[in-house]
Every structure is written in C-alpha cells, then in structure tokens.
Amino acid sequence: MKNLFSLFAKNQSLIYKVFLFIISTLLIIYLLPKGGQFKYNFQKGKPWQYENLYAPFSFTIKKNEDTLKRERQEIRANAIPYFEYNSEIEENVIENFNNNLETKYIDSLYKTPEKAIERLADVFISEVYKNGVTDEIHTYDDDRLIYLKKGNEIEERNYSQLFKKENLNKKVRELVEKNKVEDVQVLLYNLLYEVFEPNVKLNSKLTEASIDAEIKALNPNRGIIEKGGRIIAKGEVVEGDKFQILESLKAEFQSQIWSKNNYLWLLVGYSMLVSLVFLMLFLFLKNYRPYIYNNNTKVTFIFFNIFLMVFLTTLVLKVHSDYVYVVPICILPLILKAFFDPRVGLFVHVLTILLLGFIVPNSFEYMFLQFIAGIVTILTVSELYKRANLFISVGQITLIYILGYFAFFVIQEGNIQTLQWENFGYFILCGLATLFAHPLIYFYEKIFGLVSDVSLLELSDTNSKLLKELSNKAPGTFHHSLNVANLAEASANEIGANSMLVRVGALYHDVGKMLNPTMFTENQANSINSHNELDPKESAKIIIDHVIKGIEIARKNNLPDRVIDFIRTHHGTSLVYYFYKKEREQQGEANKEDFIYPGPIPFSKETAILMMADSVEAASKSLKEPSSTIIDEFVEKIINNQMAQGQFLNANITFKEIETIKKVLKKKLNNIYHLRVEYPE
Questions:
Q1: Which one of 2.60.40, 1.20.120, 1.10.287, 1.10.3210 gives the CATH number of domain 454-673?
Q2: What average pLDDT is seen over the chain?
Q3: Exposed / middle / buried, residue 334 (Cβ in 10 Å: 0-12, 13-18, 19+)
Q4: CA separation for the pair 587, 65 (Å, rounded)
Q5: pTM for the complete prediction?
Q6: For residue 539, what pLDDT band results from cuts at 50, 70 and 90?
Q7: How many CB atoms lie within 10 A of CB 342?
Q8: What counts of helices (H) and strands (E) characterise the chain?
Q9: Each residue's pLDDT tens digit, 463-488
Q10: Which residues pair with 200 in a beta bridge?
Q11: Exposed (0-12), middle (13-18) or buried (19+): which is 285, by Cβ within 10 Å?
C-alpha cells in the first residue's frame, strides 16, 4: 500500500493529465451530433470528384428549405379564414331599433306610418344579419371563400357577402327607393346607424390552427430514388436537383447509420478521432512547450478553452445553424497568444476547428474561413495591451470573414442575386464579440492565476504602490532597477523574447533590498559601508537574504508567479565572491555554501537575460575610467564567467542569442558612459 501511494505521488501530474484527457474526450463526444458522417464530401457548384454514385438503398428526395418555405407561404396566403357568427346580436338590434323609433317618430312629420317603418326595418335587419355584419378591416378579395361558424355548424360564404357598416347609407337609400318611402330615409338611416352592431368576427385562433394543421401535413418529400439508381456521374457538376438528391442521401445515410446496432461503433470512431486531436495537443506541448506541459493549471486552461468553444458552437447550432458565425472562435488564439505565444495559439485554434468540423454544416467552408481568420488573428494582433491594436485586428478579421463568405457564395451560386446580406451582419456581430477578449483575459487571470501582457503593462507602472515604496526606501536600488529594465528590455527585443515580461521582472527583482537598504552599496551615502563592522558571513547572509525577502514581499503584494521567478533566479546559484574572499583572507579558509545564493538558476530566456543585465549594470558602477575597450572586455568577462558556472543550462538560450545580448549590453553601456566634451568655466 505504501509503494502504491509513493507511485501515485510520483506520477500525480501524469495521472491528472490522463484524467483530463479522458474527461475532455467524453465531454466533446457528448456534444458531437448524434449521427454518422457521410463518406463523400461535396460542394454546390463543384464537380463530383468520385466515381459514379448509385443509390445504396431506396430513399426519398427531400425538398430544400426554400421550396418548403415557399409552400408554407402559399398555404398561409390561400388559407380559408374562419369567422365566428353571433346569432343573439340580430334580436338586440331589432329590439333597440323599435324602442328608438317609438321615441323619435312624430306623426306630423312623416307620411309613412310607424308600423310600416318598423316592418320594413325588421325585414332589412334580418336580411343583412343573415350573412353577418362586420366592422373589421381585412385584405381579403371579395370573392375570397370564408367559413362562417354558427354554433357547431360551418357555412361557406364569399367575403363580399359580409355586410360592412360603412355601406349602410347606400343600402338604406336602395331600400327606401324600392319601397317608395323616401320621406323616412334620414330617420331610418340615423336609427339603424345607432343600433347596428357587428355579429361576425374573425376567429384568429381557429384560422391559425387550421393553417398549422395544413403546414404539418405538408409533404417534405418530392420523390423517391430507388436502390441502384444512378445519382450522379463522375465530373458532373453538383447543382440543382443533383445537389438536393445528394443532401437527401446524406441526411438519410446519417439517420440510418446512427442506430442502436451501430451506436457502439460510432462511439468508438468518435472516441478515436477526438482522442487523436487531444493526443496531438499533448505531444506538441511535451515536445515544444514543456513549461506549459509541466504546469497542470496551464494545460487545464487550454483544454477548458477548447471545450468552451465547442460548447458555445453546439449551443448556437441548436438555436439556428445560420448563427454559427456569430460565435467568436478567433477569441481562442487571441487569448492563448496573450498568455503563451503565437504558435500555441495557432496550433490549439487548428485543433479546435478540426473538432468543430464534426458539428457545423458546410464544414469545408466553415473550416476554411476559420483557419484563415485564425492565421490573421495571430499575425495581426501584437501588443494586445494597446487597445487600438485589438480594434484594428477585429476589423481585419471581420473583413476576412466577409470576403471569404462572398467568394464561397459566388463559387457556389454563380451570381449575387440571392446573396443573404444578413450573414454579413453575423460576421460583424462576431467581430464585436471578439472585443470581449479583454474582460475575458482579466477573468482568466483571476481564475487560473495566469499573467498576460495587459497585466504586465499595469505592473510596469513605476507609480504603483510597491515600486513607489522601493523608490522612497531604496532610491539607489530603484535607479539600478530602472537601468537594468532598460538593458534587459533592449536585449529581449533583439532576440525575440518577451520584452514586457523582462522589463517587469527587472523592475521588481530587487524589492527585497528595501527592508535593509543601507546594507547595499547603491543606497549607501557618504561612502559609509555598514558591512565594515560585520563578519563576512553575516554580510553575505544579508546580501543573499534579499532574494528570499523579495519573494516574501512579492507574494504579500500579490505579484504573479512569472514575476516572482525573476526575483528567485536573478542571482541563480552564484557566489557572493567579495565576502567569500574576505572570509578566506581573515580565517584562512571559507565554506562556499555559506556564500552561495539558493537559486534556482534561470529557466527561461527572459530570466537569463535579467541575470546578465543585472550583473553587468551593477558591476559597471565600479568602472573608474570606462572606455569602449574596457566595457567590451568587462561584459565578456562577466557573462562568460556566468556561462562557466553553468547558470544558463536550463534557460533554453543559444550561444548565438547570448552573443547578441552581449552586443546589446556593450552598446548600451557605451552610450551611458560615453565621454563628454569639457565645457570651459
């Protein structure tokens, strides 16, 4: 049992990676579409590249979406509307008319008797209300067939048979002329106008239900291809009916493949392909980015972002496939470049697009556009902490999407008459969503403890609390840190290292000195050396402790680990030679271990650059009459001595890069210590 725990402890990192690999694979497989993959790849407007294709089984030809949409519109346009008839209204109207007639009829004013008017109105009202009265405005033609629902019975009518209240005046005039009672025309019209009420209303719910039933009954198929029938010949252009037949075969093939009998085999196939993608990622990190591979937090961060992109794309596709380009896939290489480097960003982007190829429709077009957009993202976005750069890059990415989509559409359709302009809006939305990279980077920094160039820019501000404290308590050390930062930044730029990271590391590398500033020569005033009264061992301990105290201060002030690495490694395992030699002179012998920094030695180009720049800048203060030759020899001696001690063995830095750094340091120091012309008094 003890051996088992020991084995687990030794391989804890590897076990975690295996667990992450399995979980990620299962999650991606869960998100993949539940259907087999069609073995032929074809595009509208392109020639069929395979041999003659014959139907492997009988299948129906599906109508395309445009045809179905047109048929739905025709059903809706030709649907027979339902109107609800209220039989009680007629009786109320007759009763109200008779009551009003009694109060307003005056014998002396009219020749026509009251009873005659009453009988005439009753017949008129009954006749009009028989087919129904409406005050609603519709766009139906007069000969449009409608259904009149009277209780449980349905009667057919023409829309023109419904009486509109606006026609009352005309109808009353015809009535009085026919019955020769013109003297009561005004009275009759006024009374009828007051009491007329609509007894027919459109039943929208019943009409819509009828339309929905017809749409549901719509046949999505338009024909059958029998087994063995030729579908398309080699070299024939995929367009029109041929394209729709192939799409129907593809849909049928995928639905038949994903059956209970084949379910296990499809899972095996998906598992192998997804596993290969993640295996490639692990191999890339292990061979070319070991510092990421050995850090489980960083590996988890990369896998999380891959899953997030696949998840978002799947979610959008469930809403509508047209919105697939709204998902800001290019935010992935953007973020990975901000935290790592362009090659990692591009490699992970490519692998993610390969996974999305299983999910999206028109996978070739989608993958092509996303590959190009990802490359543009990597090549154009530099110095992400500059806001203008992000806006410019997003504009370029959006333009690439639009041009690529337009080119594909022209190739497939051969014209631009049917171009769907709203898709350009989706690309613009995608570009705007990509601007979310900045807040997302901040969020990731807090969750995963990573550091981006945006945070490094904030840390490089010399007005920050910690650097202000350093400048107040140890002004000499602060000035030294600024000089080292300038030297290190110039060197990093020359060999292609992370100049912003080096600069920040240089600014904070000596913060441990501010706890005891007068014990360091750059802060000693009036040539008073506090070490003269101390034992060499004590002096060496104070000097060495500034590294450990610097780490403590940095952690207390929540500096990122990448910056603390510079504090930890800027002296490596070098010897405090001055006090070691003094101890040996006083005691006759000295234990080297008492005078050696705890390390570790630099393990990146950036930390190696800082060690060189720090040593050269500090030692340059001892030069009394610096000349170009003296400076050159001085730089060579210090850096060659560090190389001889093996300080750069873990730093992944080449001899050529070290020589380039030497040249930069020599040039900079020569500029600092150049001779000035003596001006007369």
A1: 1.10.3210
A2: 84
A3: buried
A4: 95
A5: 0.63
A6: confident
A7: 15
A8: 28, 10
A9: 889 999 999 999 999 999 999 999 99
A10: 85
A11: buried
